[in-house]
Amino acid sequence: MGSIDRKDSTPQLLNRLRMRQIALMLAIQEQRTLRGAAAQLGMSQPAATKMLHDLEDALGLRLFERVGRGLRINGAGGRVLDYCQSLRGSTEALNRELLELRQGSAGRLAVGSIMAASPGRLTDALLGIKRHSPLLSIEVAVDTSDRLLAQLREGVLEVVVGRMADEHGGDYRFRPLDNEELVIVAGLVHPLARKRMISLEALLPYPWVLQPPGSPMRALIDLEFRDRGLTLPRGLIETGSILTSINLVRSSRMVAVIPAMVARSNAEHGLLRVLPFHFQRRLEAYGSIVRRDHALSRPARQFLTLLHQDREG
Is pLDDT at 243 greater than 60 in this prediction? Predict the structure, then answer.
């Protein structure tokens, strides 16, 4: 199998790669067999086999292990597939932006944010950019950091306001904004709502609403229980939606862990109680996250300036 010289390898690789080969990689990942991928792309299996061989020859590496009649992706294939998925997401985003430009829009910005940033910095930055560009189309996704980073990696989002996992540090640029405190909340008539001090043990008999595993908030909660020698309550409700968590505790004896800024805003309006419990651990600071390998659009650069202006200037 051929290989690409290290010297000036990027232009050579760009010349050798074909969009149809990228489509084939994505189809194999979806269909799990070369025959299924060929049918999805409307080509014969021999043609798909040759295309895959040409791609592997261009890269100088095998991407799949042949297992019976199927294909099993290997380490090199996984990295190439990540690139293909990222390119698909970027292409979809570009297509949407071009469509809006043809329709007379001032462009498009796709932003993702954790809930903690929404009441303050995110809202202020969004209002500021709309004052500068009233016709700009903006999409805002609110979710957990891990899910938002997946969308950023695929090119669905251009900017994320959230936390960064250490293992992805080299792929992104992170600029800190604020720290986030977590609190436990309950409904106004919860049996513990009027207590002056509450232990974690006292909360165990009640149903809990937590973020799903994989999110930074959930990781901190898991560590809090472990540090105290306790196990998580059984029968959890797991959701990344802070609004759903709030609605559940207001209508039941459940307790939930949510960002302090969001909790106190709701408590001031008489919608829930912030219980007097203090976590021993604190979350890492959240901030803006962008891909290192992606050139930012003008609206994205403008949004970041507005997002950081109070802290940096």
Answer: yes
Nearest one of 217, 263, 250 to 118, comparing CA atoms: 263
One of 2.60.120.200, 3.40.190.10, 1.10.8.60, 3.65.10.10 is the CATH number of 182-274, namely 3.40.190.10
SS3 66: strand
State the residue for tokens 């199927």. Answer: 70
Higher confidence at residue 222 or residue 104?
Answer: 222
Give the chain's largest Cα–Cα span: 73
Strands 137-142 and 182-186: unpaired
Average pLDDT, stretch 74-90? 82
CB atoms within 10 A of CB 208: 22
Confidence of residue 19 (pLDDT cuts 50, 70, 90): confident
What stretches of 61-142 show up as alpha helix (H) in DSSP?
75-102, 123-132
CA–CA separation, 159 and 162 (whole Å):
10
Q: Which residue has the tokens 């695929």?
A: 154
User: Taking a C-beta distance cutoff of 8 angstroms, is the pair 277, 190 a contact?
Assistant: no
The beta-strand segments (E) located in 114-158 are: 137-142
Question: pTM score, two decimals?
Answer: 0.58
Backbone φ and ψ for 197, nearest 5 degrees, come out as: -150, 135
* Domain 9-77 shares a fold with domain 105-179+285-312: no
pLDDT at residue 73 greater than cutoff 80: yes
Cβ contacts of residue 124 below 8 Å, gap of 6+? 306
d(CA 263, CA 278): 14
**232 vs 214, residue with greater confidence:** 232
Pairing of β 286-291 and β 159-162: antiparallel
CATH architecture of 9-77: Orthogonal Bundle (1.10)
Element (H, E) at 245: helix 242-250
Tell me the C-alpha distance between 308 and 117, whole Å. 12
